[in-house]
């Protein structure tokens, strides 16, 4: 398992000014014996839910704006982004230290050991309790891998899975997904077309989606995104549209079966 090289040479940047639309609330039950929070955004009466997993820097203004804008799209989604890092994300001072970052991920970002699976499970339960009848999941960078792991569980009911600038994606990592993929790759990721092609035989009700942003660097929708830059802001809004439209399309198909 290896990081996209841009994970180790591109520091997080300050985001354009944005007033967060959501709020931080505690999950309804403890995880690993502790109260844990999540960032909730979108209409409180939304029936379509989404779990969002941030990148290795944790909560960041650009990422929160990204979540808020998706939540406002296509009639509204209720998004829950659980805070899965107990001690915050990767330190900016470690951004160029590949070995240090990999060790940090192993120590803090393991799907099972660090209870990421449980954070996701409780956040999804809470969305259902709040009235969401369908739930999708996506992540950014490392978070996209966590989303795929969640959507590969035997009992997964997530409608679709994926995200922008994913790390650690391969034919092997997505082989057990139970839902269609959406991959928005940057210029820094490997070719993701073989990954998308590898799940076509599953014959999901909605075809998986791939798009490559050749003019964007890894992380442009998260902590590495500087939306004060016109090109990144434009591409960020385009990614919002790509994800939200896909989530809405998959949810609409599922709703016909409810």
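^ Assign residues to that structure.
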């Amino acid at each position: 398992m290896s990081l996209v090289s841009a994970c180790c040479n591109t520091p997080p940047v300050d985001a354009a000014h944005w007033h967060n639309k959501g709020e931080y609330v505690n999950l309804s039950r403890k995880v690993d014996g502790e109260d844990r929070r999540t960032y909730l955004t979108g209409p409180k009466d939304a029936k379509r839910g989404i779990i969002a997993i941030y990148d290795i820097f944790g909560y960041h203004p650009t990422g929160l704006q990204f979540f808020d804008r998706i939540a406002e799209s296509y009639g509204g989604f209720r998004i829950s982004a659980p805070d899965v890092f107990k001690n915050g994300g990767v330190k900016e001072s470690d951004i160029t230290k590949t070995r240090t970052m990999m060790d940090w991920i192993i120590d803090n970002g393991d799907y099972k050991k660090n209870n990421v699976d449980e954070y996701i499970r409780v956040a999804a339960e809470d969305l259902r309790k709040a009235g969401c009848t369908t739930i999708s999941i996506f992540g950014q960078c490392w978070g996209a891998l966590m989303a795929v792991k969640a959507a590969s569980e035997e009992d997964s009911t997530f409608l679709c899975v994926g995200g922008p600038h994913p790390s650690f994606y391969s034919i092997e990592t997505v082989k057990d997904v139970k839902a269609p993929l959406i991959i928005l790759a940057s210029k820094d990721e490997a070719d993701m077309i073989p990954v998308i092609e590898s799940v076509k035989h599953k014959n999901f009700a909605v075809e998986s989606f791939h798009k490559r942003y050749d003019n964007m660097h890894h992380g442009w929708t998260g902590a590495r995104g500087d939306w004060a830059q016109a090109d990144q802001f434009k591409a960020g809004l385009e990614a919002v549209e790509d994800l939200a439209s896909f989530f809405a399309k998959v949810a609409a198909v599922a709703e016909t079966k409810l």
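The beta strands are 23-26, 37-41, 48-53, 78-82, 134-139, 161-164, 181-186, 209-213.
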